[in-house]
Amino acid sequence: MTPSLLQIQHMTKTYQRGMETVHALDDVSFSMQEGEFIAIMGTSGSGKSTLLNILGALDQPTSGTLRLRDEAQREIFTEPAATLYRQQNIGFIFQSFHLLDDLTVSENVALPLMLAGTDAKTIRQRVEHLLEHVGLSRWAKHRPTELSGGQQQRVAIARALIAEPPIVLADEPTGNLDFRTSTEIMTLLKALNKEQQTSILLVTHDAQVASYADRVLYFHDGRIVADQPSTGELGPIMETFERYVRSV
Ligand code: ADP
Ligand code: MG
């Protein structure tokens, strides 16, 4: 059997807030296969962003292990290993795009490769290819602020993919977009997942968005309360959400 792409075991994260201990993650275990598209649903404060930040080595767990292709990643929660792990494995997409307004669209997309020291010709070719892929070639020399929300998120997607990471982590990527634009973004992500076998882990509180994934993990109070395959139908996702997340 091929090993999982990512395997999380007994992950916990606690925060101290005055006298109170907050269990942001409370013994979370799951595996993600190569090419899998997983959505994470849960109410606000259930630990979804905490999990994504840890998987992206932006934050350190309190305890637990992360294995990548069956190899324990003990070093990645401290620098310089964290940066290297992110450069080689992770593309991030955020709700508020996180683009740099002083740079052009092209420069924003190129940034991860520039930081990794890739040669200029390769960078130029990949940027052109990706901008075409996300339908933004004619905006290459513009600033992000001249673009609509949906276009800005497509720039962020191109940036997330430029280093060809095996894993894309998306934290509520459609949270600031209207329904139509959000559908466009999800169609793009789904195509990426299918065509390039990029594994996607996407946080959302929207069942419509979650329905694009192959599988949905439901979070409540830092725990996985349900883990189910998705057929793409909205009904079963909403039902599971109501049953396991709202009522516990
Ligand atoms: P979600 O993304 O599901 O809304 P988060 O992962 O952001 O939830 O947060 C999970 C819990 O951890 C919440 O109770 C939140 O208040 C708490 N939390 C997150 N970050 C911190 C922090 N830096 N300090 C203290 N508590 C935090
Ligand atoms: Mg969050």
UniProtKB/TrEMBL annotation:
SMART domains: AAA. The keyword Ion transport does not apply. Residues 6-246 form the ABC transporter domain. It comes from the Bacteria. Keywords: ATP-binding, Nucleotide-binding, Transport. Pfam families: ABC_tran. CDD domains: ABC_MJ0796_LolCDE_FtsE. Transmembrane segments: none annotated. One of its GO terms (molecular function) is ATP binding. InterPro entries: AAA+_ATPase, ABC_transporter-like_ATP-bd, ABC_transporter-like_CS, ABC_transpr_LolD-like, MacB-like_ATP-bd, P-loop_NTPase. The keyword Electron transport does not apply. PANTHER family: ABC TRANSPORTER ABCH.1 (PTHR24220:SF86), IMPORT ATP-BINDING PROTEIN (PTHR24220). This is ABC transporter ATP-binding protein.
